[in-house]
Design a protein that fits this description.
mainly alpha, Four Helix Bundle (Hemerythrin (Met), subunit A), about 0% strand
């Protein structure tokens, strides 16, 4: 990768980082629309909560983007930019132009995305175990004696 292309990508990353940081500074949390929940319909409260959670998720995504850009800029300073951080192979210029913050080749980027599973999946299984129901039934059920025969 020549120095001119590298400078162009660096300017693009710096501009994107400035925009994200500005958006984060200007971001305001939506306030509740009511002073009291006493006479509110639950849907009104749910709408307020949804707005707040959406804004929080967007801000978190922007923060993650900013961190990725900072890592890419640091890689430029270290002289490792343009090389896959996993295998060390050159990252294709087309990928860097489309996604300047990329630090891995396409093959290793896909592996990274596969590992982004919810932690709950480690604890909760998709299939129910037959002994789970017996364990729960020990606490009682709504079955009548005629249902059990």
């Amino acid at each position: 990768m020549n120095q001119q292309v590298k400078e162009k990508l660096k300017k693009q990353l710096e501009q994107e980082l400035r925009e994200i940081e500005q958006q984060l500074e200007e971001s305001e949390r939506p306030e509740a629309t009511e002073l009291s929940n006493y006479d509110n319909h639950p849907a009104d409260n749910a709408s307020d909560l949804t707005d707040q959670l959406t804004e929080m998720a967007i801000d978190e995504h922007r923060g993650d983007d900013a961190e990725e850009i900072k890592r890419a800029l640091q890689a430029m300073q270290d002289g490792t930019y343009g090389k896959c951080s996993v295998c060390g192979e050159d990252i294709p210029l087309g990928r860097l132009e489309a996604m300047p913050k990329a630090l891995t080749c396409v093959e290793h980027a896909e592996q990274k995305e596969e590992n982004l599973r919810p932690v709950e999946e480690e604890v909760i299984s998709a299939s129910s175990k037959s002994d789970d129901f017996e364990e729960v039934e020990a606490f009682g059920s709504s079955d009548t004696p005629s249902d059990k025969s």
